[in-house]
Write a structure and sequence with these properties.
Helix content: 55-70%
Low-confidence stretches: 1-8, 53-62
Oligomer: single chain
Distance between the termini: 30 Å
Mean pLDDT: 80
Number of helices: 3
């Protein structure tokens, strides 16, 4: 059985995701830098307090030496900087989620607009179903070619060549049959066309393969 891949993400959505990732990383780096700077300031203040405490202890004979205390102001400043950095990162995440949703909607609209002429022509063909059968067949063929053109415009290449060697990376063999006019291991019939895009194989082509001669 063939396995169909999910609908690929559009290039615009990928660019928006990359921009969102870079912005969030930048915000996280800024928060980390602010945290490091505040810790360094607190450490310097603690060292100054420790020096003062040593001098006081030398003046007091045998007195217990108190542990250096970090000024309360530095702790509050650290907490405030961290909260602001976290809030800014969360705002960036929400903003880029909205941007990604806008990009997805624009991509859906673009693809739908490309398919609307095909749908219009199919409706016209149904309206003239009682006309000359030969005209109906010609119209359906024209709509089919138009659909192929839309897929090509969207970046999907059709895999439906007869006579080329069987490629397990692009084809799925549904049957093997004798065909003296075909080269062994070549495609003799395409039962269902496959498609590939910039992101790789979207769907393999289901084919019939010419049997190899028995030794």
């Amino acid at each position: 059985m063939s396995q169909e891949r999910p609908e690929p993400t559009g290039p615009a959505e990928e660019r928006a995701q990359e921009e969102a990732r870079r912005d969030v990383e930048a915000a996280a780096a800024a928060a980390t830098e602010a945290l490091s700077e505040t810790r360094a300031e607190a450490a310097e203040a603690a060292e100054g307090t420790e020096g003062t405490g040593t001098a006081d202890a030398s003046e007091t004979a045998g007195g217990p030496r108190a542990a250096p205390a970090i000024p309360e102001l530095d702790v509050e400043e650290l907490r405030d900087r961290w909260h602001r950095a976290v809030a800014e990162t969360e705002n960036l995440r929400k903003r880029h989620e909205r941007r990604l949703e806008d990009v997805r909607g624009a991509e859906r609209d673009r693809v739908t607009a490309a398919w609307l002429p095909v749908v219009d022509h199919l409706e016209l063909a149904l309206q003239h179903a009682e006309a000359d059968p030969r005209a109906i067949i010609a119209g359906v063929e024209a709509v089919c070619q138009q659909a192929f053109a839309v897929l090509a415009h969207l970046g999907y290449r059709r895999i439906a060549e007869v006579g080329e060697p069987f490629d397990p990376g692009r084809h799925e063999a549904a049957q093997v049959r004798e065909d003296p006019a075909a080269a062994p291991g070549s495609i003799v019939q395409v039962l269902r066309a496959g498609y590939s895009g910039d992101r790789g194989l979207l769907r393999p082509a289901v084919v019939s393969v010419a049997a190899k001669p028995e030794e």
